[in-house]
Amino acid sequence: MRRQKRRELPVLENVVVIDAGAKGKNIAKVDGMVVLVENAVPGDVVDVKVYKKKKGLAEGRAIQFHSYSKDRVQPVCSHFERCGGCSWQNMNYEKQLFFKQKSVEDSFRRIGKLEFPEISPIVGSAKTEYYRNRLDFAFSNKKWLNDNEMLGENREASPGLGFHVSGRFDKVLDLSRCYLQADPSNQIRLAVREFALANDYPFFDLREQHGSLRSLIVRTTAPGELMVILIFFDETQEKIIKMMDFILSRFPKISSLYYVINPKGNDSVYDLEHHLYSGKSYMQEIIGGISYRIGPKSFFQTNSYQAAVLYEHTLKMAALQAHETVYDLYTGVGSIALFAAGSCNKVVGIETVPEAIEYAKLNAEDNHITNASFFASDVKDLLGPEFVATHGQPDVIITDPPRVGMDASVIKKILEIAPQRIVYVSCNPATQARDLELMKDSYEIMQTQPVDMFPHTYHVENIVVMKRRG
To answer: Where are the alpha helices (DSSP H) in 107-184?
Structure first.
């Protein structure tokens, strides 16, 4: 049977990029068709090479520029075009904030079909580089080759340590310098890579599932503490010790050094033992006068500098009273709960990860906070009439779920508990809008406040305060 020739997709000429849409995709319209354009900024006029097309929608990449947007700037990172981690680094920061605020409004109108008062102006970040306190780097025995490398004589697969390339789970972009996390993050990554190559530590093969080194996590705090976690797929104790000793010798200021053995088919390590090799078991962060112990499995806001701004706005919008009881769902290490404890009668936190709850309790002790209690359980399993009967009817529920939003059963339970106010903090306005739609018959949106926690990306944090109707 003759193989059918693949249809050649077109090049669209003189396309005007008009908007930045969901997930940072730039938007154009050509003859009634929506075109999602990579490698462009709203305001650019470009030729687009289409690589995917279906009815009413095409996706492509800008291959020639006829004129540049007034909002375009020169990216600082040499990896910008291939990495995708800071996908808006070529757009000026004020315009980034404009599109982030617009994304919140668009999500509320199109996904949630919500009624809401005017959204408060987005709060920008004072730091737009080196603002992250955590980066996860992946090892791969097949790094991503750039165009020059692909055209060169040596196109053999070679090891890389960096970020996964978008759309290619088995390829890693080998980083020389990243502008997301302050040094010594870059030095640690490069030193580990050099030592591994010189001492025959095989980088992980993501397709075939074999190798030694799997991933590297670097966590920092504003006071200057440093946690490093090295994840092995499979390795001898002798070589693990050799690598750990090297890291300590090169970076003696590391306050917590861990290693993990992960032989599973996925990268999640929350269910695995973290072996403390050197130093103390936690880092200490200070935000808004509250100190937090952060363990190797603990979730914490990845922008410590902006976290205080987020929590202050959350607390102000919650308008807590001294007599009120507050539930903090998805509390993590108690970051928002402890921030709120001084403004209410008592606060009750619930979190799935038991280790995080242990740290939340220690954080309460460290800060001499006696009106906060914490419980380890999936929110959908614990929250209900029996829990409320024991711990009191909440006047306010604060919820800060992961990107996927809240389970429908959690929303149902919140509606049954019927607090006077709900404060919903989200890192994903789309799932937030979906959840708010399920509550809109019972609750009215009073205020919405976007906060930029992730400069040079399309991500935005958003706070919503809702009041019970009737």
So the answer is: 147-151
Distance between CA atoms of residues 319 and 288, nearest Å: 18
- Confidence band of 82 (pLDDT split at 50, 70, 90): confident
Q: Are 335 and 294 in contact (CB under 8 A)?
A: no
Whole-structure pTM value: 0.92
| Average pLDDT, integer, range 175-181 | 96
Render the burial of 69-81: b for 16+ CB within 10 Å, e for the rest. Answer: bebbeebebebbe
Contact 64, 91 (CB under 8 A): no
- For the cut 70, the answer to whether the pLDDT of residue 155 exceeds it is no
pLDDT of residue 146: 59
Q: Give me the mean pLDDT over the 166-195 stretch.
A: 91
Strands 256-261 and 372-376: unpaired
The amino acid present at 95, given as its one-letter code, is: K
- CA distances for 251 relative to 95, 189, 222, angstroms: 39, 11, 18
Beta-bridged to residue 350, according to DSSP, are 329, 375
Assess whether 427 carries a catalytic annotation.
yes
- DSSP single-letter state for residue 122: P
Gap between the Cα atoms of 386 and 404, Å rounded: 27
For residue 173, give both structure tokens: 């972009």
Q: How far, in Å, CA of 203 to CA of 180, rounded?
A: 24
Rounded CA-CA distance 34/29 in Å is: 5
| Residue 108 dihedral angles phi and psi, to the nearest 5° | -65, -40
Q: What is the pLDDT of residues 352-386, one digit of tens each?
A: 999 999 999 999 999 999 999 999 999 999 999 99
Type of residue numbered 378 = D
pLDDT, averaged across the chain = 93
Adjacent-strand bridge partners of 38? 61
Which of 77, 83, 178, 427 is catalytic? The answer is: 427
- Say how far apart CA 376 and CA 267 lie, in whole Å: 23
**Cα–Cα distances in Å, from 327 out to 139, 152, 318, 469?**
40, 59, 12, 20
